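Appendix B, Record 12. Input sequence as logged:
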Amino acid sequence: MQVLVLYYSKGGNTRQLGEKIADGVRSTGLEVVLRSTAEVSKDDFLQSAGIIAGSPVYFGVMA
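Logged structural output:
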């Protein structure tokens, strides 16, 4: 089973959080695909049984 960990990160903090989440998911034995919003593909979504999305918050709104 594959889980997509998707993130947008301008400064790198959300990317680091995504990497830690991906490590945690991997530790359960699941396959993980870690992608930024710039590199994710339609197939990444279609092949994933679950999606975890991370985004910074600017002025109370997701980026």
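The helical segments are 13-26, 42-46.
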